[in-house]
Amino acid sequence: MGEERERREAGSQYMKLGECSRGGGQSSISTILLIVSFILVVLVALNMLLFYKLYALERAAHTLETWHSYSVADSPLPQTAGEWAQVLQLQRQFHQAQLSKWQQILQSSVSLLDQMKQSLEKLHRGIVVPEGHQEPPTDTLTESLTEA
């Protein structure tokens, strides 16, 4: 009888331990589910934001396309040689303006590259000491002892 009672008490202790671990497990599972749910909500919100940006970009492209079609439809083609000469003159001026912009950009790029090259050469000279100018390290303690 005593042994049977001890078995029941031991079994009830195991059940209590199992219940505690299951309760803790459910708490950790609910925490994990909460975190995953939060991440999913954030991802859905970001996805909606990306779709809105894509919609705005497509709308802007469509608007630009319609403006371009209106501008082409509104301006009649030149009919006389004088009108064609005027169009060609405007295109030359535009081309020259674009060409001068690109030349300025290239000149500034070349000057920046030259500055970078000079800076790198100075850095290289500072790091690499020529072998002829290297002096062996002197120990001042041994020199002072030999003089005394």
Automatic annotation (TrEMBL):
**A GO BP annotation:** intracellular sterol transport
**Keywords, alphabetical:** Membrane, Transmembrane, Transmembrane helix
Q: Which InterPro entries match?
A: Cholesterol_transport (IPR051482)
Q: Which domain of life is it from?
A: Eukaryota
Q: Name one GO molecular function term.
A: cholesterol transfer activity
Can you cite an annotated GO cellular component?
endoplasmic reticulum membrane
Transmembrane recorded as keyword: yes
Which regions form coiled coils?
none
Q: Which regions span the lipid bilayer?
A: 32-52
Q: PANTHER family in the record, alphabetically?
A: GRAM DOMAIN CONTAINING 1B, ISOFORM E, PROTEIN ASTER-A
UniProt name for this protein? GRAM domain containing 1A
Q: Which organism is it from?
A: Pleuronectes platessa
- Which lineage do the record's taxonomy fields give for this organism? Eukaryota, Metazoa, Chordata, Craniata, Vertebrata
